[in-house]
């Protein structure tokens, strides 16, 4: 967030998650021109639909959790910046969204 503040020349509010009620509330009605930086969404198994838990075991996201995750992401921003070019073509939640006419 500090580096982005330097580049943007204005304050940047960092939130420690990217979805959920607290993030949705913080992003609901921001001041015009404000910048809010969200935590990396790839920390959520719902982003890819599968992953590894803290013990190293393979895990899979429940479809209803993926839907809830995608719906929450759609509520928190007007613009999504993907800095992971290598994932831009994949069917991850941040690339597909939920309830949009276009990808």
Number of helices: 5
What is the averaged pLDDT score? 87
DSSP strand tally: 4
Q: In which order are the strands of the major sheet placed?
A: 1-2
- What structural category do the secondary elements indicate? alpha+beta
Estimated share of beta-strand residues: 5-15%
Low-confidence stretches: none
Q: In one word, what is the shape?
A: globular
Share of residues in helices: 25-40%
Could you describe the largest sheet, including whether it forms a barrel? 2 strands, parallel
Please write the string of helix (H) and strand (E) elements: HEHEHEEHH
What's the alpha carbon Rg, rounded to whole Å? 15 Å
How far apart the termini lie comes to: 28 Å
Explain the overall architecture.
There is one protein chain. The strands form two sheets. The chain has a two-stranded parallel sheet. It has a two-stranded antiparallel ribbon with strand order 3-4. It is 34% helix and 14% strand. The two termini are 28 Å apart. The model has no long low-confidence stretch (mean pLDDT 87). By secondary structure, it is an alpha+beta fold.
């Amino acid at each position: 967030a500090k580096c982005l503040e330097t580049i943007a020349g204005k304050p940047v509010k960092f939130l420690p998650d990217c979805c959920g009620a607290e993030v949705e509330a913080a992003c609901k009605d921001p001041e015009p021109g404000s910048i809010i930086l969200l935590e990396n969404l790839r920390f959520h198994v719902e982003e890819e639909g599968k992953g590894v838990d803290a013990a190293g075991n393979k895990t899979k996201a429940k479809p209803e959790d993926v839907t809830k995750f995608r719906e929450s992401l759609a509520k928190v921003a007007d613009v999504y910046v993907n800095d992971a070019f290598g994932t831009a073509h994949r069917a991850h939640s941040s690339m597909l969204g939920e309830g949009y006419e276009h990808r």
